[in-house]
Amino acid sequence: MLDDLRGRGYRLGLCSNYFGYADLVLDSMREIGIAGRLDACVFSCEVGWRKPNPRIYAAICARLAVAPAACLFVGDRLLEDVHSPQELGMQAVLSHEYRQEQPTASTPPPDLLIEQLDQLLAALLAAAQYSTNTPTLSCWARASSLRMRASPLSVTESRTASR
Amino acid sequence: MLQAERIQAIIFDLGDTLIRTPISQYEDDQFYAETARQLRLARPDVALDAEQLRHHQGLVGQLVATSYYEEQPGGRLEYDAASTMALAMREVAPEDAEDAALQRTIYDMGRDMITALR
Predict the structure, then answer these.
(1) Residues of B at the A interface (Cβ-Cβ below 8 Å)?
(2) Of A73, A114, B8, B14, which sits 20 to 30 A from B112 (CA to CA)?
């Protein structure tokens, strides 16, 4: 998936709260083949600020040389990976693959909720096609709590209505 | 709907997003409550409750890291553990971040707790 995303021109970054020694986790990431597929990484133990502190998001944006508004943040935690990135202007995807934090009524929902990480690429492609080919459906997309279930995706979409 | 035309970069979280992380097994109410209770016993002058520990996770993560570091080769392990714990504490309890005795207390407590959990 990471190779597919890079092949489509996306710059890929990693922003992690990690309590240890950055070189150790980088070694582990190299062993499992993740490190070489990323353009930049930021760890809290390295920069001294943990998510949800805005400085750590600024650090990864700087290393990727992109503005927050041009970033999509993907993670499993509502506060650190969804709400705080959204407050900085990013879009955010909540992943339920390993943990299942549920969006609450009192906070803005994620831009997208995916059950498995490998749904991300398909969701991006669908969103790109939707925005270019079906503009007349925009009013339909604004319906609240729209839930899409299209094979192979099972994607919950609810943020559009809040915008 | 994602606004795909805006997206130039994708930033991933690591633990429990790109990979499953073993630390998740410690993330439960009982663990945080017990951590806070032991910390109160060890240092009653420090007010870090379970919710603070859960929210920031730095200290709890450090407790787990303690045992991890001790399995690594090299002589900088304790120093690294203490320094990264201090980073976390600067957000959780800035007034205590430079308290070396408190760091030592939490370090020892974490080692004992991880031993017990195993």
Answers:
(1) 1-21, 24, 55-58, 61-62, 64-65, 68-69, 72, 80, 84-85, 87-88, 90-91
(2) B14
pLDDT at A81 over 90: yes
Residues of chain B neighbouring A25 (CB-CB closer than 8 A): 14
Q: Which amino acid is at A11?
A: R
CA dihedral A20, A24, A26, A29 (to 10 degrees): -100
Q: Please, is B8 exposed, middle or buried when counting C-beta atoms within 10 Å of its C-beta (0-12, 13-18, 19+)? A: middle
The pLDDT value recorded for residue A10 is: 96
Tokens for B71, please give them: 């399995």
Nearest CA in chain B to A25: B14
Residue with tokens 């709907």: B1
Q: Which strand (E) or helix (H) includes residue B117?
A: helix B100-117
Tokens of B6: 């805006």
ipTM above 0.90, yes or no: no
pLDDT band at B107 (very low <50, low <70, confident <90, very high): low
Alpha helices in chain A (DSSP H): 2-7, 22-31, 44-47, 54-64, 84-87, 120-133, 138-141
> Which chain B residue is nearest to residue A124, measuring alpha carbons?
B4
Residue B101, phi then psi, degrees to nearest 5? -65, -40
| Tokens 């943020």, located at residue | A159
Q: Which of A19, A142, A146 to mutate to test the interface with B (most CBs of B within 10 A)?
A: A19
- What pLDDT, in 10s, does the model give residues A38-76? 999 998 777 777 788 888 999 999 999 999 999 999 999
pTM for this structure?
Answer: 0.62
**pLDDT beyond 60 at A157:** no
Q: Where is pLDDT greater, at A80 or B117?
A: A80
